[in-house]
Amino acid sequence: LQVVDDEGRDVTPRPLFRPDPDAAAPKQSQLSASSDDSGATASGFLSACSMHEALGADLPCPSSVSKSNSSTMESVLDEAVKPGSQQDTAASLPDVQVRQEEKKEQLTEEDLDRRVDVYLTETETLWILDMPSVVVSAESEGAGRVLERNRVYADICKNRPGNDRFVEKMMQTINGAAKNKEAQCDRVLVEDKGTVVASWDLYNFFNASEAEPASKAEGSRAPAESSISDTSKEHDQTAAAAPDRGSITPAAVSERAGLARIHKEETCHLEAILRSENFQQDLLFMERILMENIFQPKLAAYRQFPVLTEPAVTSGAGSTVVAAKEAKQEEHDKGEKDKEEQKETRTDPSVLSDLKETSEGNVPPRLERLWAYSCDLTKGHNVSSMARSRVNPDLLAVGYGAFDFKEQKRGLVCCWSLKNPMWPERIFQCEHGVTALDFSAASSSLLAVGLYDGTVAIYDVRSCSSTTVLDSGEHADKHTGPVWQLRWVEQDRGTTEDDKRERLISVSADGRITTWLTWRGLDCKDLMKINRTGSEKKRFPVKKGRKSEPLISQWAAGTCFDFHPKDPDFYLAGTEEGLIHKCSCSCSTRFLETYRGHKGPVYKVAWNPFSTDTFLSCSADWSIILWHQRSQTPLLAFSSTTTVVHDVTWSPKSASVFAAANESRVEIWDLSVSILDPVAARSAEPEAKCTSVLFAGSANCLLVGDSRGGVGVFELQGLAAPSCTKV
């Protein structure tokens, strides 16, 4: 046979082993005489097999030889199948065996030592078991699509040139998109705790620790001594002591009575000492001293004083002197550097501007929490109002009461002092929730309190009892709704002495703005009854026979007011209708101006103490509005959150800075910096709402009350100093 490729070249496989041409030709047989090619193939097969047997079983027979062997055997079988050739086949098979034996005899030692090249090639893979994996059920809806894709993939793999089932290649896995996951947990609360240990405490502790080992040693010694004593002696002693236990002499009875009387007298004496006023006063002083030691850094920051640090403890006097010298040298070097920098900034204006920008950029405005006025008595109460004493700014009065009718409970008034931020100095219990309070300027010890039931009460903070000095609870003209705001006002409207005295003004939900005369036993008269004002919408004519809807009340509920800082004859009044009325004490029948801009109840109005023609207002419609008294159109409107704004107040140091308290956070606005966003903000405590805000007088701090009974004290850091007092 001859194998030819497409281009006509002979690619017939050749045998790997050729016999020696010099060797004698073997005896021809009918098996080898068929053709030259078959003879060559048979001889190659026999020689290759004989060589394989000579080399041993370690080397496999080459694939080409095996193929030649198979083809030769097929030809032998074909000749055996032909009719009439059975005898020839029988005669040829022994010849093959004879030739194999002759070939074995022809191999010499040189042939055995000769190097033979054996080439191993890979045969086709035989698959015994093939179970393809199944991912999609054959009964599912998408089974047809999956089968079609598998068929297409199989065709692609089959038709590829040089098809292989396994191909080594590089692949890049696409990473999935990043996801942000957040976890919410309760806030970790941190508390500062401290204690003071005196020298006598240390002395008692060490004495007690020394006494315990001595008592243990005596207890261990007692059993040893008792074991040494004789049993008969113990019996005699017990028998002798038995009669003494049963008999009690009169001397023993009188002695016991005397001891009991002495113990009782000592107990009564100790109770008298604990209840004495002097001891209570001493405890108060000791408590204040301890609180000042604990809160010293925070109180110093509140007062804007430098914080004192404890000196480092050194081992000897020499090291102390060296450390002091080094500190003095550092201070001297630092002072010289500061002087040189000051000279450079004076000569170079660009350096001065750079330093100014750096200083302004490094300290952004923020609210740093110092402490909170809170105790177990105030937890769970809503802070409704706050007021500072006009004589003693360190004294803060806080009223606790709910704004909602469904959440009403007993009210509470606490007077806090900087000398003890952990417990109030005065506590006044009220029958109803406290909604407003204010200190008197003429009599600094008088505190006016407004309650949810419409009562106006006056307390004397010098007294520790909850008894009121004056009370309008049984007055015929008392308010019939909650008193939302109180204010002591000094007016000089007439020539008589009564016209120059300080008056107490209140506004209530019953629509009345009332003046209370304390020198007449809390007598009252109305400054204004706030009439309801119709809206500015176009009114359509009423059809005949159709009645207009009657009003529930003729008076509009008042919520807040504020007197002009320069002319106390004029004041502003806010209502639940969202309107702000400008009124005069000389006219109680009509309003001077009406400002429309809010869509909800107005909770606070405040005149600017420096620019007295402007004022602020906040409302339940989430907004704060800046007004000018000569314009009924708002100048600016501020809205940073979608929560109710409960309180707003101007800074006593700057005409452009004010603070606002909404339910979610407290904000500091500086109109000279931005009219769009607050310059600083602080979120409320967890599960709490900010309800009131107040600047701490001359201190650069802010007081914020919340719905959980706490009044936080925050330091204003990084706020630029006001350059002027005009907006």
Automatic annotation (TrEMBL):
One GO CC annotation: axonemal dynein complex
Residue spans of the WD repeats: 595-637, 638-672
Bias-annotated ranges (Basic and acidic residues): 9-21, 98-108, 325-347
InterPro entries assigned: Dynein_IC, WD40/YVTN_repeat-like_dom_sf, WD40_repeat_dom_sf, WD40_rpt
Keywords carried by this UniProt record: Cell projection, Cilium, Cytoplasm, Cytoskeleton, Flagellum, Repeat, WD repeat
Matches recorded under PROSITE patterns: WD_REPEATS_2
Name of protein: Dynein axonemal intermediate chain 4
Annotated region (Disordered), positions in chain: 1-43, 80-108, 214-250, 316-361
Residue ranges, compositional bias (Low complexity): 32-43
Subcellular location: Cytoplasm, Cytoskeleton, Flagellum axoneme; Dynein axonemal particle
GO biological process terms held by the UniProt record: cilium movement
Keyword Protein transport: no
Primary localization class, coarse: cytoplasm
One Gene Ontology MF term: dynein light chain binding
